[in-house]
Every structure is written in C-alpha cells, then in structure tokens.
Amino acid sequence: MKNTYFIGGSPCSGKSTAAEILSREYGLFYFKVDDFLEKYMELGAQDGLPLCKKIAGMSAEQIWMREAQLQCREEFGIYEEIFDYILADLDQLNSANGILTEGAAYVPRLFKRLGLPGGRYIAVTPTPEFQIDHYRQRAFVPYVLADCPDKEQAFRNWMDRDILFAQEVRRQCREEGYSVIINDGSIPMAEMAGSIAAHFGLRTCIHNRGMLDGRGFFPSDKEIFRSNPVGLQGKATQYGGKKTGQTAFNGCEYMF
Predict the structure, then answer these.
(1) Which of the residues 52, 210, 215, 230 has the least number of beta carbons within 10 Å of its own beta carbon?
(2) How far apart are the C-alpha atoms of 100 and 122, rounded to whole Å?
(3) d(CA 51, CA 102)
(4) What percent of the chain has pLDDT over 70?
C-alpha cells in the first residue's frame, strides 16, 4: 500500500466527487470501495462472519427500522469484518502514478492498527444539513426503502445512523491523529479536492489554478482554525469572513 492514498469518512460527504477530481488531475487509479461492497458482504456471509451473515438474512424493513445507534454500531462492525477483503483486492492493483481509494469502510482506527501514516489518510464527513439535503436528491433512496411500510421513519433512522457515524469518525480521527474534513457544501468541490491533494503531497501544481497557496493550505484569510504544530487539537481562531466548510490537518479540524 506504499503508493496508495485513502479517503475515508461517512456517506454523502463528497468523498467520491473529490476522488474523481483527484484521479483525473493526477492520473491516479481510482478504487471505489462502494462498488464492491455487495461482493465483500457476500464473501463475509459465506465465511460465516456474524454481522455480514446477519444482514444478508434481513429485509429492508428489518434493516432500516432498527434504532439508529444499533445500525451505526453494526455498520462499524461490518466494515471491520470486510476490511481484509478490501486490502486483498488493493494488493492486486498496480499503478505507476499511484492508487486513490475511498469509502466509508475506511475507518480511522483500522488504519491506525496497520500503522498507516497520517499523510496517507484523510476522512471527509458532512454536516447533518448537507447530508440530509443531498440524500434527498439521490435517485436510489426510494429503491432502497421501497419495501419499508413507513418510508419516512426508515429514512429518518438512516439519516440518524449516518449522523452518528460521522460523529464517530471525527472522534476516531481526533483520537488517532488523522485529518478530517467537515463539509457543509459552501466551498466548491474542486477547492476541497485541492486541500486533500495538498494533504497527500500530490505533485501536480493544482495551486497554480488559484485553489491553494504554496504551503498546501488555503490562504490565511480563509482559515478559521489554525493547527498547533505539535498538538492534535489546535487552538481555534475564528475567521470572520464568509461561511466556510471545515477541514482538519494532523487531527485538527478546519472549516471549509
């Protein structure tokens, strides 16, 4: 995994859009975990992994009408069960320019156990408002909930699960010293992708297009938090300009 860059985080946060921009910009091979989740879940069920096997036997109503805390807890458990399948597939890939891979399955604590350096991982999570607004725009949602008698309650449970998931990802990033972006949608995706590129140290001069300054951060007039070089949680300095989203470097959270 020496030449691989990981974007984790929670669903509906902009991970995939950022990864698509970066893979084009830098010629990276893009491996999207979500495209293979069904395969990994099936492998897990076949191998008798308890949560994969449990979910495989549940209806949509049984899945989405559970309380959100249980859904969230089991989602993390599922990603832990299938993690080795993902790593095995990544080991089969080869790209001269490098590999960029993203998915909610990339849980911070799992990478900490592998000893992955902070410069190879970043998480992207949405604000609740951004998450819910964008989920409601997605065409697949009605199909996922089609067999649920109370679709609105099922949707609320789903949204609550993912809000809890995002909170836990941010907590783990702080605890493990990884960087996290909190996306509220107020900054163009290309600009957010530029910040991720700077974090990874990718070489194309994306800042020459006006996205970044030479330090790999947004210009100082757009920063609302500034990190402590030796600490995990930098002291906040509020930026009084227009509303921005939030990013974190070295475990510190910054608004975008």
Answers:
(1) 230
(2) 11
(3) 22
(4) 79
Taking only the tens place, the pLDDT of each residue in 29-65 is: 999 999 999 999 999 999 999 999 999 999 999 999 9
Distances (CA, A) of 50 to 41, 54, 73, 158: 11, 6, 14, 21
For residue 92, count other CB atoms closer than 10 A to its CB.
Answer: 6
- For 141-158, the pLDDT digits (tens) are 999 999 999 999 999 999
pLDDT tens digits along 205-216: 433 333 333 333
pLDDT of residue 91: 94
- Mean local confidence (pLDDT), 83-95: 95
CA distances from residue 144 to 117, 131, 147, 158 in whole angstroms, order as listed: 36, 17, 8, 11
| Alpha-carbon gap, residue 241 to 233, rounded angstroms | 22
* Chain length of the chain: 256
Instruction: Give the span between the Cα atoms of 16 and 35, in whole angstroms.
Output: 11
Q: Counting Cβ atoms within 10 Å, is residue 32 exposed (0-12), middle (13-18) or buried (19+)?
A: middle
- Can you say whether the dihedral through the CA atoms of 173, 176, 178, 179 is positive or negative? positive
The CA-based diameter of the chain, rounded to the nearest angstrom, is: 54
The answer, yes or no, to whether residue 113 has pLDDT greater than 60, is yes
Is residue 131 within 8 A of residue 160, CB to CB? The reply is no
Residues 126/13, Cβ–Cβ less than 8 Å = yes
